[in-house]
Amino acid sequence: MSGNTDMKLIKNGVRLDGRKPEELREIKMELGVLKRPQGSAYVEWGKNKVIAAVYGPRELHPKFMQNPTKAVVRYTYNMAPFSVDDRKRPGPDRRSVEISKISSEALTAVVETEDYPNTVIDVFVEVLQADAGTRCAALTCASLALADAGVPMKDMVVACAAGKINDHIVLDLGKEEDNFGQADVPVAITPLSKDIVLLQMDGKLTRDEYSKALNLAVDGAMQVYEMMKKTLIGSLNRKE
Ligand code: CDP
Questions:
Q1: Could you tell me what percent of the chain has a pLDDT over 90?
Q2: Measuring from atom 10 of ligand 1, which residue has the nearest CA?
Q3: Can you tell me which atom of ligand 1 is nearest the CA of 184?
């Protein structure tokens, strides 16, 4: 997010990849893509490719980490070394620890954790290819994998970002827009109760711009939720 406004990212209402300001990238979703975890999902979101696997609820070890009243939702976001232009050094870094923490909190808001005291529900997300917006794609994919695992949830979690490029508020920033735009606001919501369970901001926005970006991101998330519902219903029909 350099805020370098010299780069033309939008011209006559058309973005570099041909999208309109309020248009999402193309999204594909698939459930049950792995045989070993209890649940799994794969999401392509533009050029992002992410896969999520869910294990548990299972007893949490070491025991001092257990919560006697509820399950712990552990989230591990990892970028493959080949997922970005410059090889990503394998292993956790400050960014992945941050994304894992906030995503775990977002999912904890919907999982019926009280039903499973002393256990852990592990969610692993691997980013195979990154092209901006991976935390949103990853969290949406994780929510699908939890549903695929049959983990009881009050609601889903669906994420989408909006931001500012060349002084325009746009939905779902792509890589150049993220690199050279002015602001990026990733948002995750629970689509039924409409709670915000994740909200971040990189860059600067006025109050009005922030409000417009937030509304746009929530609208985008609701569109993604419609795709999630279709994917879940399709998977249920196949299982029957
Ligand atoms: O991916 P997301 O937008 O949630 O997070 P970000 O920190 O804003 O990163 C934006 C993009 O920068 C990522 O999606 C990657 O394409 C790229 N990136 C990278 O090339 N190398 C990294 N170590 C981290 C991010």
A1: 95
A2: 132
A3: 8
